[in-house]
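tool_call predict_complex ligand=FE2/S2 (inorganic) cluster
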Amino acid sequence: MGYSREMLDHKIIGIAYTGSGFNNCHRHFPEMLEAVKRGIIANGALPMEFPTISLGEVYLNPTSLKFRNLMALDTEVMIKAQPMDAVILMGGCDKTIPAQLMGAISANIPSIQLVGGPMMTSKFEGERLGACTDCRRFWTKFRAGAVSENQIHDVESRLATTSGTCPIMGTASTMACVAESLGLALPGSATIPAVNSDRLRAAELTGKTAVEIASNPILPKDLITMRSVENALRTILALGGSTNAIIHLTAIAGRAGINVSLYRFNELSDTTPVLVNLKPIGNHYMEDLYFAGGLGAVLRELKPLLHLDCPTVTGETLGERLDYKCDYVDRSVIASRNKPFDAKGGLISLFGNLAPKGAILKRSAATKELFETVGRAVVFESLEDLSNRIDHPDLDVFPEDFLILKNAGPASPSGMPEAGYLPIPKKMLAQGVEDMVRISDARMSGSAFGTVILHVTPESAVGGPLSLVANGDMIKLSVSEKKLDLLVSPEELEARREKLDLIPASVDPLRGYEKLYNEQILQADKGCDFEFLLPLK
Ligand code: FES
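tool_result ok
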């Protein structure tokens, strides 16, 4: 490759590069890569980028989560196999950050995350638009006949108009903030918009920092501890972050041998205020968060609740990072801890005979009037069944019913898609119903909202209690008690279990990645990682 001997004597900084024609969120990566490289070269090391799998959320079939572990394995193996003294992880779109962190923790060489940053918003008829939170809102109006075909096409073309990740507090934004709060990314880097020149400066500085950690190694496993994971959980809660982030953080922690308990998560949730007013639960967008003070301003408010002695990739502790006075914070976007947007965290776990190992509810995005309710189950056996019947005029459904979706968990043929946000049936929309309790073993997009109970574990495809729910059963939800119970006698459930016919993962023999996935996939409470990728005991 024409490197001089002198050049090859320098430290080598690998750059796990995820630019891809199939990843619209990463289309500014070539420019960011240049900035990273100049930061490395100017500080006396040699940059070597290498491609890994890139997961562009919108193109992957059946769902991007199915490939997160594959990307994590690729990242880990390529870090280990190639000669490098440190690695920069360039990611952004939903699954890329967790995949890179999982891989880097398992490889355990000095590593630093550089995220792509959020895209900018756009406008339609004077109204601000940003990715799928607004898409969902307009799509619901379209289905109800309140928005025309031409209008919905215009909205569609204006939802994602610059490079970068979805500009709301969805999964990508939440995971960027998780990386920063874990200490694996530079302070202040999570929220900088993708197209802002500050992002290039952060990229350059990331290159410089990678050179420093190559000489004075700080390893991912030094940074990922129970205490830093709790900091990240509190961050997710204060942000009103994505439900997906719980699965990803569980998987990231799992690579360091740390178990995330959903019971502990509930304790943290009850003592962590929601401080950020961002869509989908609030009004603003990521660029507003950046200009309001960024994640640093949020973490400074959380300081009394955080483990400030956690080390970070720059060598300082989290407390030292936060130990400076910020001149300006926009309180319409980032609340003070004394006047939070909500006194309790945005997410909780529910337990009960319907979800013995837990389910997740984003209470900050849910309808409070539905928190203490008993509803009749309207059951959809699969995604196909859902799409065939949800809008059928004969569907037996009332506003106070609970919509149930089975067979959409990690071990199901669909691989846990973001289908937990079941559409409100058309006949309910026509009556003006805006929200209903929805329960499934699927996930939900970080941009979605509603009283949506997700990640029911164990899932129905492996015979979890969800598989036993029948039309007309009564289900009790209590958010105050964090309970989710199927009000059917144990004898009746046992009788149903004897007749249970599980949907097979595939009717055809499996080979390749499908086979590996089906043999190794763990449940949501284990982060949906592969069993063989967990650390050896
Ligand atoms: Fe990439 Fe939303 S599609 S972050």
